[in-house]
Write a structure and sequence with these properties.
With about 160 residues, the protein is an alpha+beta fold. The protein has one domain: Nuclear Transport Factor 2, Chain: A, CATH 3.10.450.50. Helices cover about 45% and strands about 35% of the residues. The chain contains six helices and six strands. A hairpin with a 4-residue loop joins β1 and β2. It is globular, with a radius of gyration of 15 Å.
Length: about 160
């Protein structure tokens, strides 16, 4: 197995244990993470995983199709969880792409069907509006506020 494939496996194994520090240790200090909701750099990317691991009470992760070479990698992962804002069960199917520098992940891009996610997580509003930029913008704004509050709470405990 290529060392970068092993790194991706280590990242998802840490995620399955809800070990956000283990996940963050797989990231380069200059990492950039993006998905349908977040676009983060550096420590903020690790903070997002810290928040998700801390809040994901019934979170279950299944990673598969991990592959990598010297420059880039990929994986598929499924996240099973209850969306806390609505109490609705979600199965989010995600395809990930990675780039590496100095033996660590420097770029991580997750892609998923936002409309499929919003139908599960939000119910009727997601079904009706999940395809619109308006709802996507609201979800992004709420997620950014949640991350900022999580970071502020962590800073006050430090």
């Amino acid at each position: 197995m290529h060392p970068h494939a092993a790194l991706i496996e280590r990242f998802y194994a840490a995620f399955a244990r809800r070990d956000a520090e283990g996940m963050a240790a797989c990231y380069h200090p200059e990492v950039r993470f993006s998905d349908e909701v977040f676009d983060l750099q550096g420590r903020a990317a690790g903070d997002m995983w810290r928040m998700l691991c801390a809040n994901g009470r019934d979170l279950r992760i299944e990673a598969s199709a991990v592959a990598a070479d010297e420059r880039e990698g990929r994986a598929h992962w499924d996240a099973h969880y209850t969306f806390s804002a609505t109490g609705r069960k979600v199965l989010n199917r995600i395809d990930a792409r990675f780039e590496f520098r100095d033996g660590l992940i420097v770029r991580h891009v997750d892609r998923f069907d936002f409309w499929a996610w919003s139908r599960q997580a939000l119910g009727a509003p997601g079904w009706l509006l999940g395809w619109t930029p308006l709802l996507r913008g609201k979800v992004r704004a709420r997620a950014a506020r949640s991350l900022a509050a999580f970071q502020a709470a962590a800073a006050s405990r430090a």
